Amino acid sequence: MSLHIVVCAGIVPDPLQTLEPVTGLKGPALKNEMMLPAVLDPWSASALYEAADLVSKNPASKIWLVSLGPKAKLQQVMMTIAQKLSFELVAIDSPTTGFADAHATAAALAEAIATIPGLDRSKLLLFGGWESASRGAGVTLQIVGERLCISDQFMGVDQIEMREDGSFEVLERVEGGKHQASVCTGTPAVLGWATGNLPEPRNNPQIGMANMRTVMPALQKAKPVELGESGLLYLSASLPSQQRQTRVVKDMAPEAIAQELVEWMGAE
Amino acid sequence: MSPLGNTGEKNSPEIDRPSMEADIVCVGFGPATGGFLTTLNRAWTENPADPAFESRVAPGLPIQVLCYERADDIAAGVSGVVTAARGIRASFPELNPAEIPMAAPVKSERILYLLDPIGASRRPWSLRIGDRILSSLGATLGVRDHAYDLPWAPGFLHKTGGLVMSIGQFNQWVGTKLMASGLIQIWPAMPVSHPLFAENANRTGDQVVGIRLTDQGVDKHGKPEQGFVAGMDVRATLTILGDGPFGPVGSSIDKRMGMPPGHEKREWALGMKFVIELPAETTLEAGTVWHTFGYPEPEIFGFLYVHPDRLASVGIFVPSWLDDPARTVYRYLQHFIQHPALWRYLKNGTLRSWGAKSLDESGQHGEPFLAGDGYARIGEGSASTNMLAGSGVDEAWTTGVQLAEAVIELLRNRRSFTQENLAATYEKRRRASWVEHNARNAINARNGFHLGFVPGLIGMAMAGITGGRLSLAAGIPPAYKQIKKNRVQSLKDLKRRETAMLAVEDGRPLHEAMMSARGWPEIDFDGKLLISQQDALLMGGKVQAMPGFADHVIFRDAGLCIHCDDKTCIAMCSGQALTLGSEGAPVFEREKCVHCGGCLWNCTRADAEGLTNIEFHAGAGGLHSVEN
Q1: In this complex, do B187 and A205 lie within 8 Å of one another by their Cβ atoms?
Q2: In DSSP terms, which residues pair with B271 in a beta bridge?
Q3: What distance in Å separates residue B528's CA from the closest CA in chain A?
Q4: In this structure, is residue A116 part of a structural domain?
Q5: For strand A4-8 and strand A62-69, is the pairing parallel, antiparallel, or unpaired?
């Protein structure tokens, strides 16, 4: 079976860094964002690894990685990703900081995908992250699918099982830690991945070298896109609450510590 | 598959390995490799059609240049500096510091002698007398906050016209420019295991023919597991070693080929620093540079550099010649920042990041062979750091530039990368340059510290002022012999020892307990700037270790460790990645290691050949901080 898998994968500031929202001239942003190293959005990365696994099982298939972001940052991230699996990069150069309007982002992505040479839409699986570690609204992938007129969409996907007749079964996350199993008659389809089940592939220098033959030209001809004014207004921006909340309290009685822990667990 | 199996490692398992060819392969991406690649890339960009730059392994294509960096990002896990930037500015004449995040021109420099406001530091009597005189004449001499601001500093210490920088950000800036050209490929998260050698019958030495990358998908002992990927052999006509002072490739070459007669790496220091967001009301301006000495121990030099946006790098250097085995650098750093002269500005600040690295302070006494058949060394691993000026980044960058100029000359003349040709081009340039001139001035500048702190200062001043013509003579023992046991010489010492042992029984590390017993106050954690060492591992990018790589810190003989009384490796470990195991030997946790290399020169157990009991191999992961 030959699949054409397009993975929409944004880049985000490394979530392990110290991130601090600030209000800039164009609205909310992160302090010193260009200074922070970028990584492939972890949700999209899961989608990419799943795509590589599908390609390994369906050898006539191919992956296009469509990524929108500042060109210099894209370049740096590609030096890590390109060692892991084979893909063809479609780069879109945009100064976006992650607070961009999902509709404008989706329009740019859909336009780029629609013009990929050799892409057969009848074989298309459009992959991406179900959520985003950036400040996305979690709707971009669906809108890209709509713009490309793909009506079969699955979100929170953890598994795909291709069948010989071209149909496939998808496991989507639902409430209660369970999965909903759906069978789709065939491509094209949109799959927004949750975490999937695959580990990060090992670095392979040969794959890296092979990818660079297309990655660098793709970056050099990356189309600049201004996402423009969409009328979107952010009233405020804040980071998710930290898991680790350090408090220094001295000479606290063990019973009081235990009581506080019980109350904390009850509140969670 | 590679027909070459000669890695210089006798115990390498026989595995069919993939291999590929390049023209030039670089090990490590730091300032030295940055200087090399920038110069090479610029020459190619100016004339891509120059036939000299046609690849020999891929005819018709430009020269194939690969660089492998151990850290997970080219911006991760390095250091903040003040540099004279002489070589860097020569490469970028139009350099605008504002283009490089966290960079600022040097605006002011101070040298502070710090008195001991606590009374716990190990000061010799001569220094105590001097301290009393300074304290009693404080008002007249301008002593403020227990610090004496030296009214004059010799020129060799100045960084006038220089830059305060984060090396992580500088590397990122340089690397981005390089990769944009398309000629250079810099691959992060890819440690290099060791060099590949080919026997060469025509020469006395061995030719380096490339490198082997580390195996992936292995357990902590290097045994293949699920997802095993054999480290690839990358064969190249020239291998550039920019892997720092204890890099596995440089170390392998030293082990196989030896050092030049009389040369040995004997002097080290561990540099550790905090990146602190200064309080909103701070009066410290970007470009402010302070150098300090005298506290927390006389032998410990310190610094404060102010970056733009209210960020400051504040740190200390603990040298190998601090003979005390209780060398807990993190604890010392916490005392340092609380010295009244610094605390005045740092109080109410926030810790954003933290980092540590070993510095080779041997100077030209520890210079290895700079070039051999098929390889050349640049940067700190080639002993470019100048310990008189306290400067390394600019020197490292410049050695990279010199090598690139030599390589371009050899390519244009169609000459091969033999030891003779590299000596006649690279080494010749380096010997004729300011890097060499200054290194010669500095060669014996620090000898005096092996006689004591005060003789050390006198020796440094003599060497600096006379351009190296005068210095103090002193024998420099190997680093592992510079550590002296804590001797119990008096009842006071015995009581301290007993107090410390009680604390150890209570679960505290011995070195920590010894410091407390000596009078260093407990750290009053505030959860913001003063935090535990374990919490520091989680700051600013955190310490990371990808699964699937082998442990890179190896104890060659566990029996030796069990019978070691000192276990200075544990005291010195920057990330508390070494702890005392239940069997009495240190236990290594790769997930906490920041790759500072401190354990390597803090092992006191050596064999007959002088090799200590710790090996430091190629390893992935480490700090992810980009503000360091």
Answers
A1: yes
A2: B317, B357
A3: 9
A4: yes
A5: parallel
- Determine the residue type at A206: Q
Chain B: residue whose CA lies nearest to A220: B180
DSSP code at position B475: -
d(CA B624, CA B40): 28
Name A23's bridge partners.
Answer: A28
Per-residue pLDDT reduced to its tens digit, B259-275 = 999 999 999 999 999 99
Q: Which of B479-493, B520-534, B551-565 has the lowest mean pLDDT?
A: B479-493
| Cα nearest neighbour of A219 on chain B | B180
Q: Is residue A267 part of a domain?
A: no
Nearest Cβ partner for B541 among A16, A202, A217? A16
CATH number belonging to domain B104-161+266-362: 3.30.9.90
CB distance B613 to B259 below 8 Å: no
Q: CATH number, domain at A207?
A: 3.40.50.620
Indicate the length of chain A as a whole number.
Answer: 268
Nearest-angstrom CA–CA distance, A179 and A155 = 11
Q: Do A35 and B535 touch (CB under 8 A)?
A: no
Structure tokens that stand for B275 in this block: 């990146």
pLDDT beyond 70 at B506: no
Task: Tell me the nearest-neighbour CA distance from B456 into chain A, angstroms.
Answer: 40
| Same fold for the pair B19-81+168-264+365-439 and B104-161+266-362 | no
Asked if the C-beta of A246 comes within 8 angstroms of chain B's C-beta atoms, the answer is yes
Let me know if residue A54 belongs to a domain.
yes
Distance CA A237, CA A224 (A): 27
* Contact (Cβ atoms closer than 8 angstroms) between residue B271 and residue B79: yes
User: Average model confidence (pLDDT) for chain B?
Assistant: 89
Tell whether A204 is covered by a domain: yes
Cα–Cα distance between B16 and A244 in angstroms, integer? Answer: 46
Q: What is the overall mean pLDDT for chain A?
A: 88
Nearest CA in chain A to B190: A203
**Residue-by-residue DSSP string for B173-223:** HHHHHHHHTSSEEEE-S--EEEEEEE--TTSSS-EEEEEEEPPEEE-TTS-
Closest Cβ opposite residue A202 in set B75, B217, B541:
B217
Q: Specify the DSSP element, H or E, that contains A126.
A: strand A124-129
* Burial of residue B74, with CB atoms counted within 10 A of its CB: 0-12 exposed, 13-18 middle, 19 or more buried: buried
The residue range of the domain holding A82 is 4-224
Count how many residues are written for chain B.
Answer: 628
**What is the arithmetic mean of pLDDT over A121-148?**
90
Angle of the B167-180 helix axis to the A71-81 helix axis, nearest 10: 90
- Looking at the structure of chain A, the number of domains it has is 1
Q: What is the pLDDT of residues A216-241, one digit of tens each?
A: 889 888 888 887 766 777 787 777 66
One-letter-per-residue 3-state SS of A73-125: HHHHHHHHHCCCCCCEEEEEECCCCCCCCHHHHHHHHHHHHHCCCCCCHHHEE
Cross-chain residue pair A205–B234, CB shorter than 8 Å = yes
Who among B172, B216, B527 is closest to A248 (CB)?
A: B527
More confident residue, B5 or B515: B515
Q: What is the pLDDT of residues B77-125, one digit of tens each?
A: 667 799 999 999 999 999 999 999 999 999 999 999 999 999 999 898 8
What would the pLDDT profile of A174-218 be if each residue is shown by its tens digit? 887 889 999 999 999 999 999 888 988 999 988 998 898 889 889
DSSP letter string, B519-559: TPPPP---SSSS--HHHHTTSTT-EE--TT---SEEES-HH
For chain B, what are the domain ranges? 19-81+168-264+365-439, 104-161+266-362, 444-476, 491-623
Domain boundaries B19-81+168-264+365-439, CATH class? alpha beta
Among A11, A16, A35, the strongest candidate for a mutation testing the B interface, having the largest count of B CBs within 10 A, is: A35
B233-241 and B224-229: which strand pairing?
unpaired
A50 with A196: CB under 8 angstroms?
Answer: yes
